[in-house]
Every structure is written in structure tokens, then in C-alpha cells.
Amino acid sequence: MTATPTTATPTVLTEALRREGVSDARTDALTIGMYATDAGIYRVPPRAVVFPRHTDEIAATLSVARELGVPVTTRGAGTSCAGNAVGPGIVIDTARHLGRVLDVDRDSATALVEAGTVHATLQARAREIGLRFGPDPSSHSRCTVGGMIGNNACGNRALGYGRTSDNIVGMELLTAAGATLSATTGVAGGPPSLTGDDALVARLTQLADDHLGTIRTQFGRFGRQVSGYALEHLAPERGRDIGRMLVGSEGTLAVVTQARVRLVTDPAATCLAVLGFPDIYAAGDVAHQLRGLGAVAAEGIDSRIVDIVRRRRGPHAVPDLPRGAAWMLVEVPGEDSAAAQAAAERVCREIPHTDSLVVTDPGHARSLWKIREDGAGLSSRSPRDRPAHAGWEDAAVPPERLGDYLRDFDALLDAHDVQGLPYGHFGDGCLHIRLDVDLDAPDATDRYRRLVEEAADLVASYGGSLSGEHGDGRARSALLPRMYDAETMALFGAVKHAFDPTNLLNPGVLVDAAPVEADIRIPAAHKVTVPLAFGYAGDDGDFSQAVHRCTGVGKCRAAGTSSTVMCPSYLATGEEKDSTRGRARALQEMLNGTTITDGWRSPEVHDALDLCLSCKGCASDCPTGIDMATYKSETLHQTYKGRIRPRSHYSLGRLPQLARVASKLPRVANALTSLPGLKRVTLPAAGVDPRRSIPTFARQTFRAWAADEGLVASAAQAAATDHPVALFVDSFTDHFSPQVGRATVAVLREAGCAPFVPAEALCCGLTFISTGQLDAAKKTLTEAAHVLAPVVAAGIPVVGMEPSCTAALRHDLPALVDSGAARQVAGGVRTVAEVLTSAIDEGRWVAPDLTGTEIVAQPHCHHHAVMSWSADEALLARTGATVTRLGGCCGLAGNFGVELGHYEVSVKVAEQQLLPAIEAAGRETVVLADGFSCQTQIADLSERTGVHLVELLAGR
Prior knowledge:
Elements: H1 10-19, E1 25-26, H2 29-34, E2 48-50, H3 55-68, E3 72-75, E4 90-93, E5 101-105, E6 110-114, H4 119-127, E7 132-133, H5 145-151, H6 158-161, E8 168-174, E9 180-184, E10 193-195, H7 198-210, H8 212-218, H9 242-246, E11 255-264, E12 269-277, H10 280-286, E13 297-302, H11 303-313, E14 326-334, H12 337-350, E15 355-359, H13 362-373, H14 375-378, H15 402-415, E16 423-425, E17 430-432, H16 444-461, H17 473-476, H18 486-499, H19 543-547, H20 568-573, H21 580-592, H22 603-610, H23 617-621, H24 628-640, H25 647-651, H26 655-662, H27 666-674, H28 676-685, H29 702-708, H30 715-719, E18 724-728, H31 731-735, H32 738-750, E19 754-756, H33 766-770, H34 774-793, E20 798-800, H35 803-816, H36 820-828, E21 829-831, H37 832-841, E22 854-857, H38 861-867, H39 870-879, E23 882-885, H40 903-910, H41 914-920, E24 926-928, H42 932-941, H43 949-953
Parallel strand pairs: 2-4, 3-4, 18-19, 18-20, 20-21, 22-23, 22-24
Antiparallel strand pairs: 1-2, 5-6, 6-11, 7-11, 8-9, 8-11, 9-10, 12-14, 12-15, 13-14, 13-16, 16-17
Helix pairs in contact: 7-18, 10-15, 15-16, 21-22, 29-32, 34-36, 35-36, 35-38
């Protein structure tokens, strides 16, 4: 069965789509490149991507596909791990416009949603009436209901709530042939039905009757048997439930446009029992017992993934765990908190284990679940810090056989010299893992095929399923004959032909599968190691490996929280190109060179990077470790080195140098920049939006004040004092907000420190970095490292006052300057909060009492991403103040929000969290914002003034 060959060019295709009323069909290289892959390892560029605004446009797209013989693949959030959501024809993105919750019905406990509705959006609406949608995959913050239907997604709590197929009441669907189908399942208790094509129903009934023996013995053997079509639902004793059979068909049979889902009541209370084991095998041995103890979730992790979290995010990122090298997170419900805790304690009594912990603190529990939810991203690097890939990532076996399967699977990996980070739904017998197969090696694809073939044979020998929830996609469809016999495979083909006789829907998946090694993305990318400005030490100096850290999990598309920043531009525009993932894909395609063809200077790449705020939110929030700010800086450097640059690179990029000149005559400089008529001319000429205010130059710089106060000293002189602290005087504090420097001196003195200022005027090179002037940045940072290395060597901490500059010293300095001095200085840089915390711990200072003070805190993005705001948060907690921490970015982000063409997006970003919080705050509420750019945005867009932490603490 093959799709009809077609010669339709992109132009012919888009013209045909527009004639049929499709309003948004794109064939540009950037869109094609971004949609060539999902969260799997495959790269299949489509010919066009359609963003339908209503169901009629999906029908019109299918009509054009029939006419021109072009295949169709439906996509939600693009988080499919098995290559389920890529295809060579038209990709239909339902998430862009078809994401509405159309109805929530308390009486029937159901909701009607469009296919592109994000799980979290549905969940929020359901919770308004005290209900929830049961399945909760780890990608719940961005995955769509349509995608969940396509893969029969399950999630952490499938023990309690079942799979997606257990929670779909009905669906509206379109077939490739043009039929409109309406499916009602038996989930709500009524008789199943499928209307809209009586001949199709008759054909499926006949197929089921002809193969009842096979259906009854091959299918529905255990809960996580997701591979293939779920033909058990066609059996007469199951009501011939075609709707439930369609769930998990991966878009190969019909296109879902709407679904009515079952909603359930959350338990009154839950409690988490954490069981420790000597190894992951021991956890697998007992996992099946948890269903009988009422567990709604039983998730397994081991020390390999925990060690990765500690290494990447610091020790604070892993909360207390029981003794052991592997753990199960077991959630149990109760009619109240006491009953839930008693149920958790029962789990600890009855399940054999090494050590246990009953977690009653919700924050502690959330931290543990976060490790589990980030598994797909965290596991993208193996224990030996090699890139690890999806493809064989979610096999399942009957739960009672999980322990032995884990032992044999690890032995198989050892035989192939392959490693990964295992975790998964142990109560259901499902294991997730990504494998560090070297896909760059000359024989990589053959080695990969042999590995997954042996893995398929192993899981089949245990009576398991190649997929336990992600679907087969391109990763496992060709392996299905190793799990199913020839009659079953022929039956799959017959079912496919009944729905889609011309094979237009997602060809190459499930039926007539492409080889597992075909179209793998990594081998098609080119290594880029020299000449690069940044070192990319964590990626073997390879820019390609760095950008391929993005596995497509799509966390950058999720709505922001109070503790995350990524990705502010996507939340402002809703465009894939403005997400971290979209940018990574553009860079990957640039390295591939077939869709984006002009290298570093490709306009598609610069289009994708244009609205990147360089906030570094992804550096901490993306579980795969993407650092788009660095990649953008590198791209600008490679593009413009030796060439004429954009105007803002000369003005904003050289701000420290210009500020030093202006500080000689601050009154004249302030007069020139404040004249309205002059401002409208000079700012655009400098690449700056005239709606922006220009900060006022201080009449006395902080360095001048420090000299008057006798604070300028050498490291040797400072070492003779008690608790010396070197202040890194950044350009913003020095020229625009010297009061912050003065307050820093006052607070540090109160804490028993002896602050001093090195004699040399140093710079962190931040504005050079953000504009990609990396040769100048490297020279600037090399000088800073030379001066500060003796300070740090003397045991004196270097304290930054401006968060972005502090982050540049800690993060960008060692990345740009490969020297012992650079690494030494980076390790010696501290925030004010970190120094004050040490003073408290040593008994030299007591935090002031701020009880009754309300604070709205906007942590600087770089502070959050590089240093973590945890020390500041803990310090404020000690003061007794009531703190509301905001997530997201302020929107100004250094030079970004000041540049021409960025103002509107900058404001939209501020409107996500910052401006609503300020508007809701009382007049006495303190708006805490250490970052100069954050303070500037607050002043520009509100009537409030942001204050620095030291200003809050000084004199209290």
C-alpha cells in the first residue's frame, strides 16, 4: 500500500489550498525545517504546513490532498517521541488555532474540546467545576488532546485514571476519502457506535469476525499494550467499539477534529510514599503489588537520573530521598489527608524496600514529581554525558515481569556498549529510556537497527509491547512483525485499507512501515567545531551537538509559572519559530543545509532568532540543557564578524564605552537624550525605539564615590581586613544607579564584611555578548579574569550587584575564555544574597525583620538561570516578608526591548506576569527587581519603581 505519486510543487500545493479556503498554508524554508521533526530522532521535511482555523479548513486540506495525491500528517504540539508527527506531504498543525474548550458539562462529567486543545488548558477549565481529565502525561503543560488520542497517551497516574482510550466518550473525525465520522465509545456506559460510513462499519465488523481468534489472543493482554491497532475493541464482547479502537491509531486512519472526554473527580487528598531500593531491578520486582494497595501512580527512577539533576541544577534541585540507589514514587488517595497518609504508610509497611519516606509537604512532593516529569529532557544526556536519543524509549511488559525484564535489558545495553537513564511507570510495567547510541559514527544506522531489533525481540519474549504509550511511529512500526504474527500484520493492513485505501494518512507508520533507520536526523547534520567563539565544553566543542540537545520535548511552549522563565517570546506570539525548540530546529536545519541553505547568514535563522530575548531561561528551564542565548550570540558573531553590523550593535553593544564618555559631562548627555524632538531623530538612528526612555546618567559615578570613600584597594590591601569582599562595578551600577552600589556597601558592612573596589575599571562584556561581538567580549573578559584572579586566589569573593553582569562572569567568562584564571574567577563570583547568607550562617549578621512587608519580586532572568534565585528567596523568608515571586521575563531583557522592531513583543512579555502583578499590588507593596533592565521596564510601563535587594535591606 503506497500513497499515490504526485508532482505537486509547493506553489501548486499552496495555490490549491488557498482556492479551497485554507487561510494559512506555509511552504517557506523556516517552517518546513521546523516541522521536519518532532520529539523523535527522525527528519522528514513536509511540502507544506497548514494551520487550520476551523474544521472546514481541515476538510479542505484533505480534499486537496486527495486531488493531488499528497500525504497528510496531523500534529498537535509536536511532542511525539517516535516520529509519529512528521511526514513528507502536508502537516496539519491543530495546536495553533484549534485549541478551544467548547463545553464543560458538570452533569455528564464531560468536556468537548477541539483537537489542538492543550491538556493544561482543558485541566484548568475542568478544575473550575471540581473535575479533571484523568490521563496526565509528563508533557501535560503543552501536549494536545488530539495528540494524546493519536498515541493513546497514559501518564503518571494511569494506574488510577487509565489510558486516553479509557477516557474518550466520543469523537468527530474526517477520513481521507472525505467522510465525516461521529464515534461514540462505551466509556460513558452506553452502546458504542460509529456513524457517517455504514460500509466502513460493515467492513470492520467482517474483518473482526473473520479474525476473532487472533483478536482475542493477540490483543488486550495487559494495560500498556499500545503497539499496533487496538483491535481488541472490535470484538463483539467489547461492543465492537470502533471509537476506542481509533484511539492510538496515530493519525493513520482518520483525522480527529473534536473529542468529548470523560472528566473525573480528584480524590479529596493524596499522599506520596517514596520507597528506596538497592537497585532499579528490586523496584521492578515489587512494582506490580502497588495496584492492589490503591496506588494511582507508581513511578520508578534511579540514581542515574538523580545524579544528572544534581550535576546540572545543583544539589538543592534534589529534595530529600530515602536511602537507596533507586526509588519509586507512589501516590495514594484518601478521603482526607489523614487517610491518605495512612494509605502511604501502609504502602511502606507492605512493600519490601530498603528505606522509605512519607511526604506530606506539597512543595517537597512537587519537587520530586518535577524530576520525574522532566525525565524525557533530562535523559537526553546519558550517565557518561553523551547525547542520548529517543527511538526505543517506552517499551512495556506485564508488570509482574518488570524486574527480570530490566535485568535482561541492561545486559543487552551492556553488550552493545550503550547507556541511558531509565525511569518510568513501573506500576504499569512501562520503561522510559533514551540511549546514547553514537549516531555520528559511520556505521551508526546499522548499529542502531541491530540494537532495536534485539530490544524488540527481548520485549516480545516477555509478552510485552514495543510501545507502552508513545505509539510506534517511525521508530517501531517496522519492528511490529517481531511482536505480532503474519496474520495480525495482514489484519492491520486490512483495517488501514478500510479507512484509507489510498494511504494518504501518515504513510510509513504502523502499516507498510519505513525501516527504523531511515531518515534519522543526527547523521544528516554536519559537525561544527572550528572556528567557534564559545567553547561548548559540555558538547565536545561541537556546535551541532549543542543545538541537537533539543530533542523536541517542547517544554518551551508551556505556559509560564512563578518559578520558570522559558520561553517568553513564544508565549507572546504563539509562533513555533519564536520558541526555543523552533530556534533550535532552525539552527539544526542550517547545519543540515538542505532546507536552510545560506549557513550562518541564512535569513531564516535570523528570523527565528530575532525575537529571542537572550533571557537564558532555557539554560535552566529546558530539561535538555539548551542555551539559546549563547547560540544566538554565536550566530551573530559568525554572521557579522568583519562585516557591517546593525545600528544597535554599535550603540547598545558599546554602551559601557559610550557611558564612560557621557559620564564626563552627565548634564549635557542627559539634556541631549531627553529633548523630545531630538530623541525622535537620534534614537531610531541608533537602532533604538523612540518610545523607550533613556536612563539618566548619574552626576557622580559609583566608582568616583568609592574613591572618595577610600574603598579603592588592591587584593593585597584588602586581604589584611576581616571578611573582605571585592565589588564588581558594572556599567549600569556605575553610571546609572550608583545608589545601588552605595546600598551594597552599607549592607555588606552591616554584615561584617569589608567591601572594596579594585582599582581597574573592568567590564563583563555583556553588551558585546548579547550583540554577538565576541572577539571584543573575549578581550574584555580576559582582562577581567587577569585582574580578578589574584583576588579570588586570595580567598576573596567577587560580588556582583547587577545580576546580568554577575551571570556573565559566572557563565560566559569560562565559556569564552579558556584559561585557568577564567575558571577560577567564575568559581569565585557571588551574589549579594549568597554573601549575606554566609554572614548569617557564621553569626555575623541577622536579617532585618520585614514582617508585614508585602513584596512582589521579579528575579532577573539571568539570575534565575545562572545563579538561581534560591539564596535570595531563602534570605527574604528569613526576614518574615510576604513574597510573591514572579516567573517569566520582564520583557526588556537588556538591549532586546530597546531595539527597533521589538517594542510590541517586549510589552506583551511584560503583560504575561509582571504588569498584572504590579497592577494588583497595593501601593505599599515593594516591587523588588535587582536587574537594571527590569527596573527600566517597570518605570517605562507602570507608575511604580523597582528596588534592588540591597536597597530594601539597607538601614533596616
